[in-house]
Every structure is written in structure tokens, then in C-alpha cells.
Amino acid sequence: MRKALLAASAAVLLAAGPAVAQQKTIKIGFVSTFSGPTAGIGNDMRNSFELALDHMGRKMGGIPVEVIYEDDGLKPDVGKQKTEKLIESDKVDFISGYIWSNVMLASLKPIVDSKTFLVIANAGPSQIAGELCSSTVFSTSWNNDQTPQAMGLYMNQKGVKSVFLIGPNYAAGKDMLAGVASTFKGKVIGQELTTWPSQLDFSAELAKAKASGAEAVFVFYPGAAGVQFLNQYAAAGLKGTIPLFTAFTIDELSLPLQKENAIGVTGAQEWVNDLPNEANKKFVADYRKKYTGLRPTFYGAQSYDAAQLINSAVVATKGDLSDKTKLQKAMEKADFKSVRGGFKFGNNHVPIQNFYLQDVVKDADGQLSLKTVATIVKDNQDQHHDKCPMK
Amino acid sequence: MTLFIEQCLNGLQFGLLLFLLAAGLTLVFGIMDLVNLAHGSLYMIGAYFAATFAAWTGSFVLGAVLALAATLLVGMAVEVIVMRRLYGRDHIDHVLATFGLILFFDEAVRLIWGPAGLSLSLPPWLSQPVQILPGMNYSAYRLAVIVVTLAVAGFLYVLVMRTRIGMLIRAGASNREMVGALGVNIKLLYTLVFGLGAALAGLAGLMQAPILTVQIGMGENILILAFVITVIGGIGSIRGALVAALLVGFIDTLGRAFFPDILRMLLSKEAAATAAPALSSMLIYLLMAVVLVVKPEGLFSAGNK
Amino acid sequence: MRPALNLRTLVTVVLIAALVLLPLYTGLSGNRFLLTLFTRIVILAMAAVSLNLMLGYGGMMSFGHAAYLGIGGYAVGMLAHEGIDSGFVQWPVALAASALFALVIGALSLRTRGVYFIMITLAFAQMAYYMFAGLARYGGDDGLTIYKRSQFVAPVDLSNKTQFYYICLALLFGVIYLVWRLTNSRFGLVVQGARSNDLRMRAIGFPTYRYRLVCFVIAGTLCGLAGALLANQTDFVSPSIMYWTRSGDLIIMVVLGGMATPFGPLIGAVALLVLEEVLSGITEYWQIILGPLLLLVVLFARGGIDGLLTNLSGKASGQGRS
Predict the structure, then answer these.
(1) Hey, what domains does chain A have and what are their CATH numbers?
(2) Sign of CA dihedral A334, A340, A342, A348
(3) Alpha-carbon distance A311 to nearest alpha carbon in chain B (angstroms)
(4) What does the alpha-carbon distance between residue C74 and residue B176 come to, in Å, rounded to a whole number?
(5) Lowest mean pLDDT among B85-99, B290-304, C76-90, C263-277
(6) Interchain pair C278, A12: CB under 8 A
(7) Stretch B287-303: mean pLDDT, rounded?
């Protein structure tokens, strides 16, 4: 044991060797979830980020790129620790990833303090769009409440009069339910928040939704929880009786498990796999070629755009990352072909973009797939940008 | 009213499921005086086996039966390889060693089945809701779980109260040395009891699998509940485990269902909505603390000191 | 414990020297992360030392010790959130809150024995976990970011990594010394006596319940201090800091290092956390190595690393085991 201990200490000391010389490579840290039930999301993000690098010849502005992937295990404290390691030990130039709002909020301080450039590829807590916005923090996703707001607008269009809201009790869950409530013109009859991520049995909540007499149910459950929710929704006899509206609950990862239970369940999204632009066609086709049997999700699309955004800034500054102001200006231009079509940043570095309605249909091969049905809202900007001190 | 009945059924189903876990735990606790934190791992393994075997055989029921047998074997193997060496040791050694087992099993499952988890889908005849009262539908599968667990509880009752093995189990729970002194093959009895506990945990896991996902670490949250139940019920008492399991099942489900509304009357809507899930999770622990303060040996102590 | 030049003393001295000199190395190599890692180790070692007081010396097997980490941490976090940055307010509040919580929990839990005690302490810790998870104002499940570390008078600056490390280290040594003095006092002897034979101690006329309760409260308070430090170190506090697996980690540190020994918990904390860091660098599946390793320690290395070192030194074994 003593020898092991000494060897272990030696290994730590060795691993901590002196820092490498600057700008021989572009170092990017990528924090996501690669273990546990939501590991599929992290893998999709990594796949898409890698695919983007392949498309760039694994170089940005002629400089080789090195990406260090770290697993946050869906825990805010672990995510923060990994973020600190990337900044202090690996000394990365950019940091990206982050699925979960709570992990993102916990990790934000060391990133902002060290002025490392951050490109958030999914999480969208409202604070970061508002009072906590920062000159070096960018997002290729959205603010949490934008997607459910679009869903609220769609429910208005469908003439829904009353709704019951169900979601997980963490930062994004609360943002999502508040989002629907802010645009939905009918009555919110009830709202249930469940323990996240441990609670997966929704029987008590479903029984209440049924008893409330609401015309519709809105739900937000990413990852495996979304599969369980739809299965239990069907088993409780609610599917077909009460229409279900969703945000981030049905995607290409969950669909193979949700199967028939997802048919006809609509959701709002800023990216759908069949969006008709060249960049997207290439992304989807090459992804399916490189990772046989898998389909890219919106998480992947956002990660692909994150890599493109970093690349565009490195190219524009000719690889000189020392001038932070110049780099920031280059990032703000967002000079790349996004897979979602149009892409521009608001003052708070959150995209101004369209939101689409997606539905589940059987595609040409007889497989279930997601399809764009309509554009719910065009050039939508989050409602928190006024609170951001950057103008 | 239908809402209340439905929530009661949910509570009953959850409580009976917890009973399966707690029964195995309390047997091992009572007879071998062994604190087994890895009981939740057996629950997880049962679910993984079921998902795998069901996929191989294409039949849910066949998969479940095979998984049950496999979990029994794993349990007996664990007893022979590890647990046997822990009898008579300090509780702290048990806690540490079985904590190590949890880490091992979690990672082994990740190596074998991958990190993403599996899903176990139900045959059509179980995935449809059935009408149980006029105007009231209930999930057929949850009803099936209630029936199966009640049957198992009955089987356990007969096994423990009416058979020779059961007699030894009861004797072991109240006086371990005496049973050994009477020339009973204690080693074999212990292996069997541990295997039985494992199989019960596996059964709970595989029945929970279609409702929840099959995932790494699924046993850890529910393990704590199972411990709470064994302690409330009194260590070594199957009857206590049943009563406590139903109590916990009802309190957890009904608490989650109705507590927020009660809270809403006292607090602002916003505060109530966020505080309610946390507070209703606390109810069970509150119950346990109260029971232990009033009866430090649980409700139905098996009588051994 | 007579200081003699044997392997056990040598390892302890080398470890302490390494801890003291660490900032020098990180300053030269430029790797600040190592300092961050070891600050964390030092803080958790302090929690383990406090647990050792009740677990190792007092024989009280608490499975909810992480609750005090959380209470100390939340005292700092909540006050900071309300705009009270002064460490002169935050830290005493953290200690007082932990002491009060320990007093209530201890008074109720010490009525039970054995497994029931393990489980009731666990239940109270879980209650604390869910209580903080329900505090929407302070982030609920998501936790609370602390934007400004505890403020003290001029030269003391907790945001300075080296300074903060030395403060933690000094406090750790202070706590180790305090526990050592306590265990060798009359009070400590009564508590240890109650561990081996409670009935006899009571027959002699010692109100052991009261002694054990005081021991419980001291252990909880010291752990609350570690919690206040941990919150400052991570600039963040969330309910997960007091989840039951964290209590399990603390037990592992104590047992791995050596129960009822002054430096055992420190050795255990360093060994466990460095091992975690190294193994997780080698393989993604590091827990498959760590799990069986714990099992082996339980089965073959009673007395933990400290006991092992003592045996290797050729001294009579049996020290530091109940």
C-alpha cells in the first residue's frame, strides 16, 4: 500500500509537468455527460464536435486542434471541478459543451474569472442571458424559456384553453415551465415539479394531471426521463385522451425507445434534422455515414455549430488568441454557415433564431423520425437580453 | 375520489415493491447480522438481466424467470466469495466492504452493458390501461406488480412460518449461536438465505425496470428506502418489513400527491411548488426518526439483542 | 504514541513535509490545479479527522457526517447570498449551526444502538439533504454559487490560492492537535471506555450518554468548520455535498487510514483522493479497481494504512483497532 501510495503521488506530480509553449495547438475543453443514463447526449455532442473537426481537417486557421473531453456525471460540483482542471491544469483556450443548466451555473465563475472563451452548446439558464452575461461567454443553443415559449404560442394557435405543466425540479425545469406560462394565453391549471434526476416514476403526477381536467399537458423531460414519461403517459391511458405538448422530450436518442408512444406528440425546436440548407444536409449525411446506426440530435447540431463558431473566430484572428477584444469581436460576427440556417447573436451572445414545430412520423424506410411541420416563430430573441449590461 | 383511489393504488404498488427489497435485506440483517449496502446492486443486476434475457428470448415473462435465476446465482456467489468472510466483523467493516462492492458492480455493469442504460418494454397485454372501476382506468402492469408482490409475500409467509427452512431462519434471527450449536449446516443456510434475498431484490429490480429505466446506480436511492423500512419495521422481522414498506410506500406517494396542495395553502404558490418535492421526500425520514426515538428497536423487533 | 524512528513515523513526517512544501512545487511548475486538488484533500481530511473522533475513538458509527459539511457550507453560502461577506460572522455561524444540529441529532440518535444508530444518523442527514434541496431562494437542488469568499481583515485573503491552502492546512493541524489532546484527556478516556464497555462505565458512575453527546457535538462542529472551508474552496455549495455517498467517503477515509489514530484520517484522505485522481486518469473504469481494493483493505488490512505501517515497522500490531 505504501509503495502504491508513493507511486500514486509520483504519478500525480509527473502528470503536473510544466505548461507547454503557447499556440502550437488550439486547446479546447469540452464538458458534457459521458456516464450515467444521459451519456447518450454527451456522446452525440462529442460525435458532432469530432465531425466538425473532421470537416475542418482537424485544424483551425492552420493550427492543429486538441480537444479534451471531461465528464460532469450530471453533477454540478463535479462539472465545476472538471472545468477548473481544464482551465488551471490543461490551460485550454476555449471551453465548450455543457448540457445542464445547473452544471453550467456552477461552472461559470472559474470560466469568467479566468477570461476563458466559453461556447455553451446546450444549457441556457436565464441568468446567463441576463444579469450574468459576459464578454467571453457565447451560446450556440438558446435561452431555456425560448423553446417552451414557442410551444405556448403554438398551443394558442391550436386553441388550447387550459394546460397542466410537469417538469423536473432544477434550473432548466423551472425556466421551461415559466416559459410556457409566459406565452400561453389560456389557463395554467396545475404545475408539478419532480425530483431530478432521481425520480422516474410519474404516477402521482399523471394521476393529478388527469384529475385536473386540463385540456392539454405540457412536459419537459430530457434524456431517459423523457422515455419513461411517454411510456407511463401511454400506460396510464392518457395518450389519445389528453394531447401532450413537449420541449426537449423527444429527440433522435429517445425516439428509438419511445417508439409508437411518441407518434403525434409535437415539440418545439430550433433545429430539426430535415431543415433544408446545405450545411445541414452535409452534417446529417456525414454524421449518419461516420456513425452508422446513429442519427444526430439537436444537441449534436448545437455542438457542431459551436466548433464552427470557434473555428470562424480563430480564422478571423489568424490564430492570434492573445488579443481578447479582437477575438470577442470575431466571435460576435458568427461568420459561419450554421446547420439551422440563419444565425446571429443578440447583445447577450445568445442566438436570435427561428423555432420550428416538429412531429414524429414514419420516414421512407418505415422508421420513426422527426419532421419539421411548421415555423412557429421567426427571429426570436430571448426576453432576458435587456437585463444584460452588454449593449 | 378517483384521484385518491388511484394514488392509493400507486402507493400500494410502490410499497409492495419496496417490501421485496426490504424483505431480503431484513433477513440478511437479522440472521447473519450483516449490513449489506450492495443489496441495491443486486436490484440493479436483476433489472439488467431481465432486459438482456427478454431481448434474447423475445419474451418478457421468460426473460424475467431467467433473470430471477441468474440473480439468485450471483447472490449466492457473492455470499461464498465475499460475505462469508464478513460475518462476525464490525458493522463498519460491512459498510466499507459492501460500499466497495457497490463501486465494483456499478462499474462492472458499465463495462458489460455500456453507460447508456437499457429499456425493458412490456408485452402489449401489459402496457394497456384497464378499467377497474366505472370511469377509472389503471395501468395493467402496475396491477400485475401488485398481484405478483402479494403472491411473493404470501410465499414468504408460508416459507418462513410453515417450513423447516423457515423455522431455522426464525431461529437464526433470534439466536444465531444456538442454531449452529444444534448441528444445523449454518454455512449452507446462510448461502441460501443470501441467495433468496438477492432473488427478491432482483425481482423488485426487474419489475421496476419497465416503469423506470434500467440504469447504473438505480439501486442506490431505493436502497436507502429499503434500509429505512427494515429499521422502522425492526431488524429481522418480515412482518415489520411489510408493515413499514406499505407505510413508506403510501407516505411517499400520497405525500408527493397531496402535500404540495397543503403547502400551497400555507406558502406562496412559487415557493410551494419548489419546496414540495423536497419536503415530501423528507417525510419518510421524519417517520423513521420518530419511530426510532419512540421505539429504538423498530416496530416489530425480532427479539434478539 | 512514542515518537520512534520507524516506518510509520517516517511516512507521517514525509507526508506532512510534502503538504507544507506543496505550494513551493506548484509555484515552480506553474500547475495551480494540483494546489486546488490538495486544498480539497486537506479540507476533506479535516472532516475525516472530526469523524474519527466519534467513530474511531467513540465507537459511534455515524453514516450522516456529511450533513455538517453541508450545514457549514450553507451557512457561508446563505450569508454570502444575503450580502454578509464577513468571515467573522460567517464562520461562527457555521460552527454554531453545526453544533446545534449535532446537539439535536445526537440527543435523539444516541438513544439507539448498532445498526439503528447507523440508520438514524443516515436518516437525519438525508433530511438535511432534502431540506436544503427545497430552499428555492438558495438555489434548491442546483446549489448556490458564492461570488465572494469570506472576508477577513487586510492581509488575509482567501481568494489567494496559496494563502487559502496554508490557512486550511494550519486549521487541519489545529484540529488534529485538538482531537489528540481530547482523546488523551479524562473526557476522551471516558468516551473510549464507553466504546469498549458502556455498561461498566455507567456502573462506575459516568453518565456516558452525556459524554458521548458532547463528543458527537464536538465532532459535528469541527466538520462544520470543514464545510465552511469547502464552500469557500469551491465557491459553490449544493445539497450533493451532504449526500449519503459523501458520508460513505468520509468513513472510507477514516478506515482506510486507520481508525482511532491521530494521523490515520489524514493519510486515508490523501490516499483515497489521490488514488481516485490517479486511477481516473488511467482508466475510465477506475471504480472497478477501487471497489475491490476497499474490500481487500477490510479483509486483510485491519487497522488501515496506519496499521499496515505499524506492522511493517515490526512493532506489535493491535494498536488502533477496537
Answers:
(1) 22-142+276-353 (3.40.50.2300), 146-269 (3.40.50.2300)
(2) negative
(3) 31
(4) 46
(5) B290-304
(6) yes
(7) 83
Confidence at residue A75, expressed as pLDDT on a 0 to 100 scale: 83
Given this model, what pLDDT does residue C314 score? 66
Cα B136 to its chain centre, rounded Å, is 29
Confidence of residue C298 (pLDDT cuts 50, 70, 90): confident
Beta strands B136-139; A368-380: pairing state: unpaired
- The grid coordinates listed for C303 are 487497522
Inter-chain touch C145–A196, beta carbons under 8 Å: no
**Where do the DSSP E strands lie in chain A?**
26-32, 59-60, 63-71, 94-97, 117-120, 137-139, 162-168, 187-194, 216-219, 244-247, 266-269, 344-345, 351-362, 368-380
Nearest residue of B to residue A41 by CA position? B116
Question: Chain C contacts of A18, Cβ < 8 Å?
Answer: 29-31
Shortest CA distance from A80: residue in chain C: C234
Q: Quick: pLDDT tens for C66-117.
A: 999 999 999 999 999 999 999 999 999 999 999 999 999 999 999 888 888 9
The alpha-carbon gap from B263 to the nearest alpha carbon of chain A, in Å, equals 13
C196 touching B (Cβ < 8 Å): no
C-alpha cell at C311: 506492522
pTM given for the model: 0.87
Q: Which residues on neighbouring strands pair with residue A59, listed in sequence order?
A: A64
Where b means 16+ CB within 10 Å and e means fewer, C285-296 reads: ebbbebbbbbbe
Supply φ then ψ for residue B128, to 5 degrees. Answer: -95, 150
Gap from A9 CA to chain C (nearest CA, Å): 7
Taking the CA of residue B12 and the nearest CA in chain A, the distance in Å comes to 12
Helix (H) or strand (E) holding A140: none
Interchain CB contact of C133 with B (< 8 Å):
yes
CA gap B35, B187 in Å, rounded: 18
Are B224 and C288 a contacting pair at CB < 8 A? no
Measured between its terminal Cα atoms, the distance across chain C in Å is 16
For A142: left if phi > 0, alpha if psi spans -120 to 50, otherwise beta; the answer is beta
Over residues A139-153, mean pLDDT? 95
Inter-residue long-range contacts of B153-156, CB under 8 Å, 24+ positions, other chains counted: B153/B16, B153/B19, B153/B23, B153/B242, B156/B23, B156/B238
Of B13, B139, B210, the CB nearest to A236: B139
CA distance C93 to C224: 10
Looking at the complex, report in whole angstroms how far the Cα of residue B191 sits from the nearest Cα belonging to chain C: 19
**Interior/surface letters B6-43, b for 16+ CB within 10 angstroms, e for the rest:** bbebbbbbbbbbbbbbbbbbbbbbbbbbbbbbbbbbbb
Cβ A39–B115 below 8 Å, yes or no?
A: yes
Residue B12 has a pLDDT of 95
CB contact under 8 A, B271 and C136: yes
Residues of B in contact with C64 (CB under 8 A): none
